[in-house]
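Next comes this protein:
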Amino acid sequence: IELMVDAARAAAADAGAPRLLEQVQLVAAAGGWFRYRNPAQLVAERIGAPDAATVLSATSGTAPQDMVALAAERIARGDLDVALVVGGEARWSHQRLKREGLAPPWTDEPGTGEPEPISAFSDEMMSEATALGAPVVAYALFEDSLRSSSDETIDVHRERIAALWAGFSEVAASNPFAWDRTPRTSAEVGGPTPQNRMIAFPYTKAMVANNTVDMASALLLCSVVAARAAGVERDRLVFPHVVTSGHETWRVIERHDLHGCPALSTAGRAAFAHAGLGPDDIEHIDLYACFPAIVQMSAQALGLGFDRPLTVTGGLGFAGGAVANAVGHSIAAMVPRVRDGGWGLVHGNGGLATKHSFAVYADHPPTAFARIDVQDAVDHAARRELPADWSGRAVVDAATVVYDREGPAHVIAAVRDGDGRAWARSTDAAVIATTMDEGLAGAVVHRGATGTLEP
């Protein structure tokens, strides 16, 4: 709460209108691992706006931009004048205190009232996440699907994504608000060491999101009339032109192509279309970057080349971000870029490349702000799931090796028979070695009725 309040005050000071916080009518907070029932109410009370309405999002990577869309839509309709979007956590300090057997010294008030809920996931997606064990497993499978679809060797692919992530670390090094500002070479990113252990092949620790941070952000939104009345100078203003959103099929196993994202491409195209822009018109880009796979998927879907910066923060692995608030930092980092001119594009991604949000920002107002749900236009091809007890010969779509702290633990693979797909697992040392040395995608295997994978 203290971090979010500090960020809110910093946002008002940056706008040159610290008293604007007292006029806030809506406080929207990104969900997290904290135990507050209504963190937005606690923030509202501390900024001098105790009567503000409150919103609490699910712990989704799209949440901050979803809340910007909600607030901007209501401001555009004339339903409110001033809103605050916040998010943050003190997980790094909390874990250190826990190891020392100490109780956190900050408030444990839950907050009063019932906040308006947004950005929820379906139970289907949550059960899928539980089945895979961790989000990194799904993204490592997307990574292998990308590799095999491009006919890349294991070594060439690892070198390429390590170089991509090294570029993100360089951006984080120049970001004064990044959690980790240490620039890394591709060898340091991709090479496993005791300090950079493997998590899920081919991802090392340096390639995965870091939400064990003490970080917060705040975005102050208001009508132009309210901004002028508060004395906000013209050169402080940044305008959202459009926010689009859509989601994939909730369960990864059902998706037509593991690394395909029809909702992502549809939402991205809708954002470009509303703003009257193409990929080459965007000067500033921040693609959601929890793992290398989603950046590649987004760039390919949007027609963005890898010869340009695709982040303004450095991504979740280096810049860091509270579990549902990385996009809050992306938007905050986009503001000064856009103030200096040029269009800005921010992508939010929630779940297992499941939910997507795109927004276009500029230093001039839109003809009309638009909040667009593209779900009706998302083309979900026939679902591919096989019965849980299905057994027989199948072709591997993608595979990854999941590690624990002792080393490689097991292989999890997506295997396909005709149009159906199922998960399969193996602890066989030879299968583990093949997955990492040559790649298992394309191999013919046998899946047992209990989900075992056999060569």
